[in-house]
Write a structure and sequence with these properties.
37% strand; 6 strands; three-stranded antiparallel β-sheet
């Protein structure tokens, strides 16, 4: 969510178990920011799974991250390398072949 550039956003969270059903967790989030006309509030509910079985999930098939040296980049939809951190330097292109036109 884009917030105001003055960086004065306030995010309040209230996390509690539902009194009527202890297997339900309620999370009420309120955002107060100068980019909004009034405070924005949303409530999310999460149900507890008591007999949950962990299973392995391999996400390599849809992994859009590229590691070059010790730096991590994101591959955008148009095939360009994008930084994953603020002020991250671009990759050293000396290690790549020039694109053919």
């Amino acid at each position: 969510m884009p917030f105001h550039p003055d960086e004065r956003a306030v995010v309040k969270e209230r996390i509690r178990l539902d009194k009527a059903n202890p297997n339900v967790l309620r999370n009420e989030i309120t955002v107060i920011d100068n980019a909004l006309t009034r405070p924005w509030t949303v409530t999310r509910s999460y149900r507890r799974e008591r007999d949950y079985r962990w299973s392995e999930y391999v996400c390599a098939a849809n992994n859009q991250h590229v590691v070059i040296g010790k730096e991590d980049y994101f591959l955008s939809a148009d095939g360009l390398l994008m930084p994953v951190r603020k002020d991250q330097k671009p990759p050293d292109l000396r290690h790549f072949d020039r694109a053919r036109q």
